Amino acid sequence: MAATIRDVAREAGVAVCTVSFAMNGSAHVAEATKKRIFEAIEKLNYRPNQSARGLVTKKTNNIGLVVEDTVDGLENSILLDVIKGLGQATGDNNYDLLLSFQKPSTSKLADHLLDVYRKQSADGLILMGAAINQPFDELIKNRFPFVLLGRPAIPGLCHSVNADNEQGAYEAVKYLVGKGHRRIALITPCTLEVDASLDRYNGYRLAMEEFVGRFDEQLVAIGSFEQDSGYAETEKLLSLKDRPTAIIAGRDVIASRVVERAQELGYAVPDNVAVIGFDNTVVSQLARPSITSIELPMRQMGLEAAQLLMKLIDGEIGFDDIQTIVLPCTVCEREST
Fold first, then answer.
1. Which of 205, 239, 267, 319 gives 272 a disulfide partner, CB atoms 3.0 to 4.6 angstroms apart?
2. pLDDT in tens, 22-65
């Protein structure tokens, strides 16, 4: 027989209402007491239902979007585009979307994901912005439905939807070579521990070897999520004896700093140095000159991720029948090239 909330209360040595408060957060519960309650929940494999309908269907009709707050999309239209895609899919299928922002701490994020599983406050999760070394062991072990917006660290690890960042960087180099450039630099969007950054680096390197005939590590600078990222990197790249005539920036925000610093140093954009950004956000459109950018299909990614997750929740796709969806990027040409 399935465990009840009374069983959990008895195991934890608390009142039934205290168990309820701990699970739904409607009242304060001491951390030590909460710890006993969740240990009892895990021990008894208790699965609370969230509504009268859930008593029959065992579904909440909620999908959770968990976002690490290092994602640059929090400051521009990327996240909004993802939510639009998710909303289109969930609205068409009578699901509600829950949004959760998480600090970039691996252990805390893992705890939060497991907490959602324990409470059954959502039927499944979409994870956005997780680093490539993020562990999903607990979700996978407990066969809790989730889809990663990004590339898993291990191929076939989990269901995922991603933009082809490697192809996007490859196309950026190909485009610039078509404009006559050979000394093409790259400022990565952030550390190479993040999948999108590593993929853009790999695409750039592959294209430089193919179209230019050589890859020069001197032409690569590592960007960050700091507000002025791109500023110092641009100065360093343009101070090289054989300086680049074009710079690919891993994010539009960085590209705007590249344009700003290049102009301060006396280089006209695009006459002396061409600039390409990544993500095709409002930043690239409002900059002066406007910035050519690689567009990621974020709305389509959100739509595909939600549709995939709902199929997983409904049993149309098996947990072990791993689905990997990769969508192409496109070049949006503007004044900076």
1. 267
2. 876 656 888 889 889 989 988 888 876 544 344 444 577 888 88
Q: How far apart, in whole angstroms, are the C-alpha atoms of residue 286 and residue 289?
A: 8
Domain CATH number, residue 183: 3.40.50.2300
Q: What is the spatial distance between Cα 193 and Cα 273, in angstroms, rounded to a whole number?
A: 29
Please report whether residue 231 resides in a domain: yes
User: How confident is the model over 111-136, as pLDDT tens digits?
Assistant: 666 666 556 678 888 988 755 446 67
* Torsion from C-alpha of 119, 123, 127, 132, nearest 10 degrees: 80
Number of domains the chain is built from = 2
Two structure tokens written together for 139 = 């979700």
Query: Structure tokens of 23?
Result: 């699970």
Domain that holds residue 32: 1-48
The Cα 118–Cα 18 span in angstroms is 16
> φ and ψ at 105, to 5 degrees?
-120, 115
